[in-house]
Queue: 2 jobs
Job 1
Amino acid sequence: MVVSACPDTDRPVNIAVLGCGAVTSIYYAPALLQLELSKMVRVAALFDPDREALLQVGRQFPSARRMRNSKDLAGADLAIVASPPKHHAEQTIEALRAGVAVLCEKPMASALPEAEAMAAAAERAGGLLAVGLVRRFLPATQAIRMILANRMLGDLRSVACFEGGPFRWPARTPSFFDRSQGGVLLDIGTHVLDLLAWWLGLPQGIEYEDDAMGGVAANCRFLLHYDFGFRVEGHLSRDWELPNRYYFDCARGWMNWTPMEPGFVQIGFHHAPFTLNAELHQNSICFARPGTGRRGINFEQAFVAEIENLVQVLRGNASLVVPAVEALTSLRLIHQCLQQRRLMKIPWLAESEETFARVQARGAG
Amino acid sequence: MSSPLIAVIGAGGFIGSRIVECFHLRGWAEIRPVVRRASALARSSRFNLESRIADARDQRALSAALSGAEYLIHAAGGDDATILETVGPVFRAAQHAGVRRMVYLSSASVHGQSPQPGTDENSRLRADQPISYNNAKVRAERRFLYLRARGNVEIVLLRPGIVYGPRSSWIGSFADELLTGRAFVVHGARGICNGIYIDNLVHAIRLALTADRVDGHAFLVGDQETVTWRDLYEPIVKAMGMTFEAIPSGNGSRSDASGFERLIRMADSKLGKRVLRIAPRRLRNAAYEGLSAWFDDPPDRSAVSKGPEVPRVADLERTLLQTCNWKLSSQKAERMLGYFPQVSFQEGCRRSVEWLRFAGYPVVHKSE
């Protein structure tokens, strides 16, 4: 049950931001500034133990008070938990206990039991817990879901997704690479597995391998087996630029999506001499008939849509696009992957290196 | 070596990451990766190692990062300014931290991309070459030796040529060029490729850290075999399911080629450099650009790829490299370091292709 925390539609939703690192300064802060202009939200409080990070984001929200600690949530309707994942569970549960709704940045938590505790806390408190799996708000991911659900290209035969490149995220500290934070699977993989589960449902079998040798993986591969007769092959990397595409092979044609192009999908029909490179627009009505409206939103605007969704839910006007229970699904898939992880074949290693690598990999997280 | 602590500056790069991987997985030493920013830790974080973040231009941060290290490998790359700006801070930080010896990864390009026949470590280095990277490396070597003369940290300079292998841009970028229809070669890629497989370089580094009576010396290091650029590229071309003959080559008419060769020789010769140096900058640039422009509008390449139509321009570096006619010798390294390449050229190519497959390239040909 969701408690409406801010039924008063005239009053902006008061937001506390916990964590002023890269994801906040790059994505959440611009989105919040835009929503402040429309009087939908007000950034009321900020918290980060890193003084410099706090100052940097604080300059954009001069009226926001500096919180003494992450529990200092007085006056907040919604907390955006954008701190390192190892703090997600604690900060989320505290906020929910205080009656504050939460938007928790992905991954929901580093470990499955923590995430389950968060979902349980939300249920106990009757509170609102959403997870920042922002890609669900992109026009392309929504279009893909619809095309697959309606079998517009016929039965799905296989999916291949390759995503990643040299790690460029402006991480402020090495903590991003702590074993507790997980490797590439808990990073990009959180988005990828969430989308795959959202589009295709849960697989019946999983195979997984990565290159962690005592630390965290920079590369991983997985195979998801579905009873419907198709399988999904995935390759994620923080190491080398991958093709960055999702390819769906269906009975009547194929579909391709590049994550860097959230407003486009490419569609082709087998044996047809042309490919449709489709730009996604919102619907509109033109002379009483359906027409093409504004372009679909981009990645930055998806953060605006994500927060808007929460505000509308708080006001009782919508349902959550990414409720915690659905984020738990992909986290369970990640957990299953890691449970059966094995070391990838790293073809350039000498025999002696490979032997030691296997020993190290057994203890890798 | 009894488990000394070795710090690796530039541990996130192609060479640095393989140094870390090799030294750690072979148990050669305790290794400490040092990177400029947290995001560069992705590769070394695969291992349970204690990494440090320090900009190689920040002496204070670097001193702390090198604390306790007995040896230092300086493998940080960067633009010309960065190459030079790191010299002083790295040396002084190493000295402050009590580092015994540093191996600096210079480059064979201090002798130019197309060195004169007879070139070896005793050849005079020039800091007025047409490619500024070469000059930066020459100046960096000189500065390190200057600081060494006044400091306590021993220095060994290694001059590898074309370092290829997994994650090398010579391999990956060429595969990218093939796949996007931008690949081309100069003069059939018949020039000598002074290559060194990454593991052979790591082997040389290990020797340079501990060999006796090598302080202040520079060593050219390379593979044993004398190979051409075509020999290096061909396995990649095959792996991508293409044929080498289909790649456009800068082989124009005979008169073009001879004119081109004259221009190359002029740019690389002592007289040529003198002429170009005194020529007005605009004219000088035009001369170098002339080399590049020669490759515009190449012959039909439809057999290679149906990628986007983009004009290919051979930069001066590629042009000089692929017309090289001198195999740089590793004799000095063999004599003083006991260096002998551990991995053959053929095996190095095989591993490079297998890496392409690992990295998600559409490898269709089984490597030999």
Job 2
Amino acid sequence: MLRSSAWRVRLAHAAVTMGAAVRRHAWSYLFVLPTFALFVVFTLVPVVQAFVLSLQSARIVGGDFIGLQNFVTLAEDPVFRQALGNTILYSAVVVAAQLTLALVVASLIQPLGPRSQTFYRALFYLPLVNSAILVAMVWRWIFNANPYGLANTVLGVFGLQPLLWIGSSDQALAAVILSAVLTIPGGGVVLYSAAMGSLPKELYEAAEVEGAGALTKWWYITVPLLKPTTLYLLVVYTILAFQIFERVYVMTNGGGPNNATITIVQLIYSTAFQFGRYGLASAMAVVLFIMAVAVAVVQFRSLRSDVEY
Amino acid sequence: MDGDAGVKIDRRRFLQALAAVGVAVACGPSAAPASASPAPSTSGAVAKPVSIEWWRRNYTAGTGSAETITSDGAVKGFRDRNPNYTITIQGGPFGPETDQKFDIAILQQKAGPDVFHTTGGDVLKYAAAGQLSEPPLTATEKSDFNASALTATTYKGKVVAYPLWIVPWFEYINLDLFKERGVTPPKDGNWTYEEFLDAAKKLTFKRADGKQIYGFAHANDEFAFMLIDGGRLYDTAVKTWTFNSAEAVSGLERWVALAKEKVMPPDFLTLNPNDSQARFISGEIAILQRPSAMINVLNADPKWVYGTNWDIANFPKGKTAQTAWGGVGFIAVREQADADKKAAAHVFAKYLTGPDIGPDLKKMTPPIEYWLAPAARTSAAGIYGEYHPAKAKVAKMGSFTYVLPNVSTWAEIDQKYLRPARDAALEGKKTAKQALDEVAPTAQKLLDEANK
């Protein structure tokens, strides 16, 4: 009874607070409305629809409600399990490498003068304007299994035998991962570089007084203070890695020899648009969604900090 | 002080909020144009004007693609015979986007094309949804079609579309390389598997300048070797998966032997059609397995003279009679309430697949080669062979070309299970029997699903 009353009081208080907020910011909500409407129509509704479709045997002309059967099918499907494993492996390696690379490159740029900093930031960021498909086509040539592929040409210079790269089920995923790792993440470099520029100088001066070297300052001051930026990049890069598609599609003809490079999004694409199983493809998208949310929550909890500067 | 604290918290939260929005947005989820062109249709029985729409993949008005030139010519030829009909052509690239456009229009909106060009599993999909109008073919007309092509358009005992053409896969041979290595080309295009393998081995070599030549390549898009010893995907009723039979296993073992002998380029598992053609044209491949469309590609290149630099040969022969692998193209008419449009669409579809269109377009200025592959109707088949001596050879292949029966779940069986299993065998990770036996239960399940 008491508990019920307390809830009523809380609800009434919340309603009053919300009412006041609406009255106070009514115009603001009006301005936000167009963007919010677009978000609802083009993002939120499709996501909800994907959840609904995942519970149906949906084909192009509709389907029946089948509960969690699509998820059971996925659990029993060796190709989906392979896609899941490949996606996780790709994401773990690529995200770790890209974060590290971005941090290192930004740290190397930081001591330079303002003009040089701007030049190098632009230099690392500009490749991002290239079409991902074109980039993947270049990597396809680099990792061509023939001796004239660039990677094999380089191996030849060192007297090493050519590898099969994307032409082999043992090496194809490694080649795709390597192609992503060797692409310096320009966005991360720019963000880290900007964040480093705003770190307080006093901390470094104090460390110098204590006799700290450059590496010690970087490890004990720069890296910890960049945690918020690291968290942001970690979450975004992880999601992008989970969504890996065009690189696999172009480099290895959509899955590679013996499904060696198949990923979840590649499988979603073929399941929906080539096999016509929209319900099953939606179930895969839901699994991907849950993976992304779960990983993001873990990342938030482990990296959230009260570091302020 | 408060102000400072506020700023600090805002920045951190801003980054966290950006990351959170990233999660939400990341988990959220795009046909092509038409061109008006003249109009069309057949028999003259319909006197009142009727406008219909023809959807044709790879048609883009004003371009020089084969589909555009032949489609514009077809419409003109039809209209010359049937001035009361008007035909608008709508195009779209080959690929999933256009496939989806067809699906949405035909299956969801029950609208779109009155007549359209389609292939394989789409016919069954649309027939199962009751969206195809049954062609009014007489018994004589039916007997004029290639039997396997007609079977491929049959759904629950009824012919649901007009077979257009049969596209066979065969071998293109580089006569210069044969000459360079002293290899005799197959007489009249016929060779056994053993003769083919022997030639491929001799044609795999490295020149003094370091250029590597490979005896054989394919574009990773067919299973022809698995057919040559008599292996077939299904039983004759298309109820049982039989592609793990001793004959199919033996066929795959012949394919595996090519990999073991290293007569194919090292990237043969990921070689796509364009790359394979480019390598043949650049003289790196002695024997290339491709369908008939490549004839026009070679003819367009002045460096390649038929009979001097290149020729075509049949598929190597295995333990059974000569076999080839091929696909079928169809013209379908959409079911609809408008009887006039439907009738006009059928008249046009018959023209597109019949014996008159070839000669009509050949008489045009400049002459147009309408048939991009041998016609599925015997009465229409002759003209394809008149276009080019190589095409005359291809025209004879229809009699032994195995046309893949239509199974609506074929794409899934093929791409998701059969190709990876085949890859495992070709890489030596599994024996041919292991690979095909592992696929069989899943393939049967998907076949059963298709037959429901």
